[in-house]
Design a protein that fits this description.
- With 130 residues, this protein is of the alpha/beta class.
- Helices cover 21% and strands 35% of the residues.
- The chain has a single domain, classed as 2,3-Dihydroxybiphenyl 1,2-Dioxygenase, domain 1.
- A hairpin with a 4-residue loop joins strand 2 and strand 3 (39-43).
- The chain is globular.
- The relative contact order is 0.22.
């Protein structure tokens, strides 16, 4: 359904330092990086799409997070949700909701929410039973 997700950032080096470890913990690999543009993209190994991209906005104006937009990243299990959330906070992210069941979504939804250092909201979740 998705081709790619793009998250605008202002400090590319800081964003790379944050997203590199967080996305690696989810099993994504860096597909490309171009600091001169600047932008970078990650993918699931052996799968062309979707891509997760970070970079300066195309219009060259400052990136700023909105209230409402959020990208949710799929984790293989609940332990990965816990680990990614902890890693995100360790890398300078801000907690927006600790790991836990969210039965209001469905019985097995286990998720955690955080903002990257620039304020973009992200979720990491698992839909499988424990």
């Amino acid at each position: 359904m998705l081709s790619h997700v793009f998250v605008g950032v202002n400090d590319f080096d800081h964003a790379m330092a944050f997203y590199g470890p967080v996305l690696a913990r989810l099993g994504l690999v860096l597909r490309f990086t171009d600091p001169s543009r600047p932008w970078a993209g990650w993918q699931t190994p052996g799968v062309a799409r979707p891509l997760f991209l970070i970079g300066k906005p195309f219009d060259e104006h400052a990136a700023h997070p909105g209230n409402g937009p959020m990208n949710a990243l799929l984790a293989v299990d609940r332990a990965a949700v816990d680990a990614v959330h902890a890693l995100a906070l360790h890398q300078g992210g801000r907690c927006e909701g600790p790991p836990g069941l969210r039965p209001e979504y469905h019985a097995n939804y286990y998720g955690a929410y955080f903002r990257d250092p620039e304020g973009n909201k992200l979720c990491v979740c698992c839909h499988d039973a424990a």
